[in-house]
Amino acid sequence: DFCLSRGLGDVYKRQVFEAVSASKKPIGSSKLRKAIGGTPLQLRTALNRLIEGGKVTYQGKARATKYSLR
Asked: How far apart are alpha carbons 50 and 45 in whole angstroms?
């Protein structure tokens, strides 16, 4: 688990993490946005921070990118 003490962006990041965690297989960004909402920029920023933090990994490129837990 990770600390969420930096503001409202972290609430969204937590929602993204939980949606990726709940997926039984790697999940694409369009399905993540349908599940939790937000703009493409919000989602991309949250995913990038989770990837940098070592919580989430990805495979593929561009529209074929899928995300899963590390």
From this structure: 9
